[in-house]
């Protein structure tokens, strides 16, 4: 008799088991969404931190033009990294809106070639503007660093 009653209530057991399976599936999907959202949040935080560091480094760059000399088709520019961050490299130079590729930078202290200036270091580079610059004229020069900062000065020929 008890066996017959158990067989009659089979639908009730089936409903309970299906509800438990549904609850387990919802919990599993919830954990998957939780892990995914934590991973995305962590990636976003890393990207945001890197962007802020890059922007802060760019703001800490300061390049001072110490002296600009032009003679017989050769322009020599003396610079100083007066900022609080090292590794300031020159990506490009613009003279009167004409672009020049990254020049060969040399240290003022020992004339050694370098790719960047550390904080308080002085250096210089030479380029040959083409066409040659007219005498007695003022020309703008813009230096763009590897981090994207621009520094502008004017010199006379």
Description:
The chain folds into two domains: 2-59; 62-156, Immunoglobulin-like. The protein has helices at residues 2-8, 10-60, and strands at residues 63-71, 74-81, 90-95, 98-101, 105-107, 113-114, 122-127, 138-145, 150-156. The radius of gyration is 33 Å and the shape is rod-shaped. It starts with a helix and ends with a strand. Strand 1 and strand 2 form a beta hairpin. The protein is built from two helices and nine strands. It is 37% helix and 34% strand. The model has no long low-confidence stretch (mean pLDDT 88). The protein is of the alpha+beta class and 157 residues long. The strands form two sheets. The chain has a five-stranded antiparallel sheet, with no helix packed on it. Strands 4-3-8-9 form a four-stranded antiparallel sheet, with no helix packed on it.
Number of DSSP helices?
Answer: 2
Note poorly predicted spans: none
Distance between the termini: 114 Å
Q: What does the main sheet amount to?
A: 5 strands, antiparallel
* SSE order, one letter for each helix or strand: HHEEEEEEEEE
The assigned CATH architecture of the largest domain is Sandwich
Radius of gyration: 33 Å
Count of separate structural domains: 2
Q: Supply the helix-strand structural class.
A: alpha+beta
CATH-defined topology of the largest domain:
Immunoglobulin-like
Shape: rod-shaped
Strand content: 25-35%
Mean pLDDT score:
88
